[in-house]
Amino acid sequence: MTATVAYKLPLGQFLARNPFPEPLTDGLFYRDKMRALHRIAPDVPVVDLLEVGGGQSGVSAMLYPQAKVVNIDMDASLAEAPCNKDPRVTFVHGDATALPFPDASFDLLTMFDLLEHVPDDAAVAREALRVVRPGGWILVSTPDRERWRYPYYRIFRPICPPEEDLFAEWGHVRRGYTQTELDALFGQPADKTCAFINPLLALSHDVSFSRLSRRRRRLLHALLAPASVVGWFTHRMSTPGTEIAAAWRRP
What we know:
The chain is 31% helix and 19% strand. By secondary structure, it is an alpha/beta fold. The chain has one domain (11-249): Rossmann fold. The chain has a 7-stranded mixed beta sheet with strand order 3-2-1-4-5-7-6. Helix 7 (201-208) packs antiparallel against helix 8 (214-234). The longest helix has 21 residues, at 214-234. The protein is globular, with a radius of gyration of 18 Å. The chain starts with 10 loop residues before the first helix and ends with a strand. One of its GO terms (molecular function) is S-adenosylmethionine-dependent methyltransferase activity.
C-alpha cells in the first residue's frame, strides 16, 4: 500500500507554532484562526507560494514547509523579522494592488487579514488572480462584516478600548466582508470556507485585547477557560464565527 503524502504541515505541529507567547490564553483566538486556515488549505503540492501582507507572522511558510515563499509587504522594515530570514523565504517590499510578478507565477497565494486594510480591494483581487497559475489556489482570512464587533460582549466595554481605536491601530479601512462579497471579489463561490472565533471563543478574544494588565488577563482567561474549551472542541467547518477563512481555486 502506498503511503499518503502530506504537503501541508499536520495540524498539531502547525498549531504548536502559534507565534503568540501565550498561545492558550491571549493567543487562543490566533490558534483558532490557524486551525481554520489549516482546514481550508488544500493538501496539494505547492512549489511557489506568495504571501501578500504576511508581515512578521510566517504563517504561510509554516503551513507549507516544502514551498518556496515570497512574502510581499508594504512595511520594508519587516524584512528583518526572523520569519523573513528563513532560507526558504524571500521578502519583497511592494504593493498588493500592483504585484511585481509575471502572470501565473505561483501555485498558491495567501492574504491573511489583508483585504480589510486596502482601499482598492478590487485591484488586490485582480492581481491575486493574475499571478496565480490556472488550477492554483487563493487563501483569504478576514473579519465577517455582519458578525464581527468589539467587544463582542457589552459586559466587557468598561475594560476594552472602543472598536474605532482598534481599527485605527490596525489600519482597517472597512469592517470586513460577507462571504457573498468575497465571492464577488474573486468572481466565483469559494471552494472551501470555515468561520472562526465563535461566540464562546469571542469571550477570550475580548479579553486578549482588553486594557487589563497581563496578570489580570491571565486570571480572567482562567475563569473563562471552561467556555473556551467548549467553544474550541465544538467548532466545526459550518459553525458560525466572527471571522472568515476561505479558499478559491483558479479555473
